[in-house]
Amino acid sequence: MAASTLRIALVQMAVGEVKTKNVARAVQLIKEAAGGGAQMIVLPECFNSPYGTTHFPKYAEDIPGGESTVALRDAAKKFGVFVVGGSVPERDGDKLFNTCTVWGPQGNMLAKHRKIHLFDINVPGSIVFRESDCLTAGNTPTTFDLPHCKIGLGICYDMRFSELANIYSKLGCKLLLYPGAFNMTTGPAHWELLQRARALDNQVYVGTISPARDTSSSYIAWGHSSMVSPWGEVVSTCEAEEAIVYADLDMDYVAKVRQMIPVLTQKRNDVYELTTKT
Ligand SMILES: NC(=O)CCC(=O)C(=O)O
Question: Is residue 271 a part of any domain in this protein?
Answer without folding.
Answer: no
